[in-house]
Structures are given as structure tokens and as C-alpha cells.
Amino acid sequence: MLLLVTGLLGVAGLAYLGVQEALRARLASDGTTAPSMPMQTYDGKKLSLADLRGKVVMLDFWATWCPPCQAEMPSLIKLAKEYESKGLVFVAASRDEMPDAPLFVEEFVVSRMPELAPYVVYAPDEMAAAFQITALPTLYFLDREGRVVDAQRGALSEPALRARIERALEQ
Questions:
Q1: For burial by CB atoms within 10 Å, which of 35, 52, 63, 136 has the most?
Q2: The whole model's pTM is what?
Q3: In the predicted structure, residue 20 carries a pLDDT above the cut 50
């Protein structure tokens, strides 16, 4: 009986890993160069990922209505501040529906997370399509040349985020 249970758990584990790999395969591939289209920042300026060359970019696609996004955001902000001096830039790419996204994000930032404001951009549909965003949150790491080096669909724990940040900074 113990052997049967162990075998079933092993099969379940392999199935889980297979599903995770399949989900990862549907994201932009490692080595893909990030598009350089302009995005509007929270304070009304323009920012392109090309402007961030020379830095490692932690690009998080999120929305104000997304509970896992909300839960993960404090860790993303904390780690962005912690690793900024090592060359990390955090970009919180809102996928709230335009043209009202700035209103939703402003309400969220003002009432719940003021420390998020410097990191917010509004990701146009073309940017989301380039990164194959079909679920939120989705997190990408771009190397100093603007190429994808890691991607994750779904929220991550702070230790998992830290490990990915350190790996991305080492490249």
C-alpha cells in the first residue's frame, strides 16, 4: 500500500512539473529581446524598456483587481528597493483596462500602496501580446541587454523572488 501511495505521489509530482513546464513554454522565450514601445508612467512621462538597457529589469504584469497581484506586490517593492543599488529596476506594468487604468491605479496607489507609484507603467495591449500575457501576475526578468532571462506566471514567495533576482543579476 505504501508503495502504491508513493508511486501515485511521484506520478502526481511529475504531472505538476509537466504542467508548469507547459505554462512556461507559453511565455516569451529566454533570449527574446524585449520590445521597445513607449509606455506611460504613473506620473505621466514616457518609458521604454530600451531606456533601461544596462540594468536588470524585473517586469511584473499585474492589475488592481487581481488578488494574487496585490498579495505579491509588497515583496516586489521591498526587493526592488533592496536590489536597486545592484542594478535592478522594477517595472510594474498595469493591465487594468484603458482608458480608465490611470484612475483605477491612482485609487489603488493612494488608498492601499503609495510606495508602488514610482514603479507603475501602463502596458499597452501590444506589449502584453509581445510578452504573451494571458494571466496575472506574470513576471519577467530582462538582462542588461534587454533580453528575457526568466519568466513566471503566477505569484511567487519572497524567497523565490529573491532567488530569481539574484540569478538574473549574476548573468
A1: 136
A2: 0.84
A3: no
